[in-house]
Amino acid sequence: MAASPTLRRRRLARQLLRLREEAGLTAKKAAAQAKAASPDRPWFEAKITRIENSKIQRIRDIDIQTLLDVYKVSDADEREAYRRLAREASQTGWWVGYRDVLGSGTYVDLETEASRIRSYQVLYIPGLLQTEAYARALVQGGSVIADRDVDRVVEARMLRQGILHRADAPRLWAVVDEAAFDKMPAAVAEEQIQHLIEIQRPTLRVQVLPHSVGPHAGMDGAFVVLDFERDPSTVYVEHSTSSLFVEDAADVAHYEMVYDHVHAMALSPSDSIRWMERRLESLR
């Protein structure tokens, strides 16, 4: 499985917070002891807090070792495990080369190590399931991305789909509102719908939420729930100029409940395929 530096950074942050609490230290006291142990390094309460909130992207090895000393972690194997985790958290992935079109790349980074992806989309097909022609039509249709960047946005989106072809590909469940099919550009609709039918397998399902269901729990908008083998789930909510990662356990549970509702109201996978086949027939 591809490693996610973002996920490693969040895991390291949680573990360092746990170590500090087990040591009975406040962030202020931990910083003071770190400063006494390593006077040549900048140590202050805010730095401890930023590390524990995974706000510092690269933590130097000397700082990790200082914190392990302060928290009385003496076992050599345990110390090396923390140091290795810090090194992995500082690495970068292929998406770094596309920061001009992907922004921070945090979502793509987390997506690479998800064990399950639960997607609910209202107006378009999830990026992992888009054909190149459909993706290009979406990007160009938005008219807010410079022409010179269109190719790079589409290229990055196609590269993301590589995770679906790995031996350890994440399970993907996508609930897509019928509105997304209504808004498909006519020139690419047939190919895109055919792709959705052909790509399905036991670990990848697309379910249509038809207009006929009426009001439902997901009407506030689209979101994606990312699940991980060893880490807490997170929810991604995208907006036009920003994005939100929901990590609070209660909030994540709320989104999971909403997903369960829309999933239950959507057509079954087999009925969804038949629905898409009828849609294809109408296009032809």
From TrEMBL:
Q: Which residues form the DUF5753 domain?
A: 106-278
Task: Name the Pfam families for this protein.
Answer: DUF5753, HTH_31
Its domain of life reads: Bacteria
- InterPro entries according to UniProt: DUF5753
Q: What is this protein called?
A: DUF5753 domain-containing protein
Organism classification, top ranks?
Bacteria, Bacillati, Actinomycetota, Actinomycetes, Streptosporangiales
